[in-house]
Amino acid sequence: MIVQVIGALLSGSLALLADAAHMFTDASGLVIALIAATVAARPADDRRTFGYQRAEVFGALINAVILIALATWVAIEGIGRLVNPGDVEVAGGLMLVVAVVGLLANAVSMWLLSRAQRTSINVRGAYLEVMGDLIGSAAVIVAAVVILITGWMPADAIASLFIAAMIIPRAISLLREVFSVLAESAPKGTAVSEIRTHLLGYDGVVGVHDVHVWQLTRGAPVFTAHVSIEPELFTDGRSAQLLTEMQSCLADHFDVAHSTFQIEPAEQSDCEPHHA
After folding, report:
1. Apex CA 118: angle with CA 117 and CA 120, to 5°?
2. pLDDT, tens digit, for every residue of 202-250?
3. What is the CATH number of domain 2-182?
4. Where, residue-wise, is CATH 1.20.1510.10 in the chain?
5. In CATH, what class is 192-270?
6. What's this model's pTM, rounded to 2 decimal places?
């Protein structure tokens, strides 16, 4: 980032400065991710019975806001240079060298984050930022080559606008995922009807209602449901075994480690209002 800032000041490249600013948000985003992950690892207590896993979601929200602010700034500066293309001369050679350094640094960062981003929404936010940096560095390289070959200075501003346009969809995608978690929507890929059908397949189960599925953060789904069973399962002492089997089913087949069932006799279920 420091190399890119110096290179941008010496070469006059807005694209390099935009890429450096994006790298700054990556650095701050990684700090936010580290703090959020550290907080999320704290154990549950009497006040926060689910623990602090939502800290990762709030960290991702902050990252998304930073991305949107950055894209807005880059877009305004890029349009300004397109309107007045002769105001700044860009040194294409220096711009190219610094952009290559940035490309290599971002490639290493992406490799380091690739595994963890599959299970953490917080780390995924950082991963997406670094991916944007890598693509941005590639765009700066193309712009630098164009300037070196043709001397066409607007290529620098166009690369800057490309970086801004690339940031916005990623920020919106991250915001959508954050809001989905905060709205307690069912995790993506979780079919509630399929889970209900699976549970109804157990011997003695006559109904499944008041089903709720949400997630504390990415990779931490939670499931609750009322399960109506034949009275004979209570008298035979088989209700506890059924509960164990259903919890194992959700953990093994639907990747839901935290599930809560209310087992009730069928006649009681008939007297309750069903919500889902």
Report:
1. 60
2. 888 888 888 888 887 777 788 889 999 888 888 888 888 888 888 888 8
3. 1.20.1510.10
4. 2-182
5. alpha beta
6. 0.68
